[in-house]
Amino acid sequence: MSEIITNKVSLHRGRKIERIRKLRGWTQSLLAEKLDVSKQAISKLEQSENIGDEKLAEIAIALGVTFEGLRDFTEEKVLYNTNNFYENCGVTATSIAANVETIQNPLRETIEMFEKQLESTRKELLEVIKERITSK
Length: 136
Hints:
The protein has helices at residues 13-23, 28-35, 39-47, 53-63, 67-71, 75-88, 93-135. It has 136 residues and is mainly α.
C-alpha cells in the first residue's frame, strides 16, 4: 500500500464542501440549484470557516453524502479509502473475465427467447394477412 503523508492543516467546513463538490464534478451553480440558493451564496459558503451543524446537514444531503462524511472529510481519508478499496477488493483480470462470461450467457438466452417470440409473432401476422387476402 502506498504511504500516505498526513496533512496537519485541517480543512475548514467551507473548504470541505468545496472539495466534495469538486470531487463529484459539480459546479457551484449546480450545488446552488440543489440548495435553492444563488451561486454567490455557494461561493460565500465555501469561504466560511464555521458552518452550523443544521446547515451542514442540509448541504450533506444536497451533496449526496452523510453528515459525518462531510463533517469529518479529509483528503487523506479519500486517498486511504481509495487505495484500500483497490488493494483489498479482490478483483483480478481472471475474475472479471469469469463475470463477463456469466453475464453474457443470460444475455444470449434472452436474445434467443426474443427471437423465438419474434418468429411466432411473424407467423401470426402472416396468418392474419392470408385471412384478409382470401376473405376479399
